[in-house]
Amino acid sequence: MLYFKFASADVKLANETHSHQGFKFYTFSNLILMNKRHDKSGLCFERAFFILSSPDDRFIKSFAEGLLQQPEFYLDGPKGKANLGIERIEILKDFSFEDECWFKTLSPIYVKTIRKENESLREIDLYPTEPKFYENLHKNLIERFSEFYGKAPADYFDVIETADIKPKRIKIAESYRRCNLMSLKIQASSELLKFAYEAGLGEKNAMGFGCVDVVNSSQQMKNLTADERR
């Protein structure tokens, strides 16, 4: 759905983005449902929203234009299609990043590695309990920043605290990937934190993984956690 809305406004840019063999520099959140409830017919809700993020202003502009030109879309579910329409699009306020930030995931972070097992190489999904998770998270962020801007960032990055880790298992094509919703406090250069916010954390961002929001302080972090428990 995202790609076709994008292409309706700028088909050349959509094709360039879709066919690009390197990283794709956008991410989007899970669909966030307001006043949701379950009944026999399925999942009901009054309204929903999602967040799309990218460091590429041209991408954001084209996507928004595509949605405004064709505001109707549908979601496939186990019991059929749900027809939806876009009511409005909002541009969120920019954050001014320093050298430390709490992020909360709006879609799960996916990180993998390659390991040798029985004389063959296998992709292994990583969890936040493993140091390799944070090593690869850092490496991936540096590589994507360097490709997008054509230069290396000020490379300082350390995840100093995590909270509310919720493992998820999500089907992509014919296989399942293990990923995690979580909150994490990162110390890093301001340019890296800004890029993480705009382009996402981890891998498969263009498939809706690693979208994050900013939690401004430790007190807000406690309030956020309490709200989630309710």
UniProtKB/TrEMBL annotation:
Residue intervals of the CRISPR associated protein Cas6 C-terminal domain: 97-214
Gene3D superfamilies: 3.30.70.1890, 3.30.70.1900
Cited InterPro entries: Cas_Cas6_C, CRISPR-assoc_prot_Cas6, CRISPR-assoc_prot_Cas6_N_sf
Domain of life: Archaea
Homology family: Belongs to the CRISPR-associated protein Cas6/Cse3/CasE family.
PANTHER family for the chain: CRISPR-ASSOCIATED ENDORIBONUCLEASE CAS6 1 (PTHR36984:SF1)
Protein name as annotated: CRISPR-associated endoribonuclease
Lineage start: Archaea, Methanobacteriati, Methanobacteriota, Stenosarchaea group, Methanomicrobia
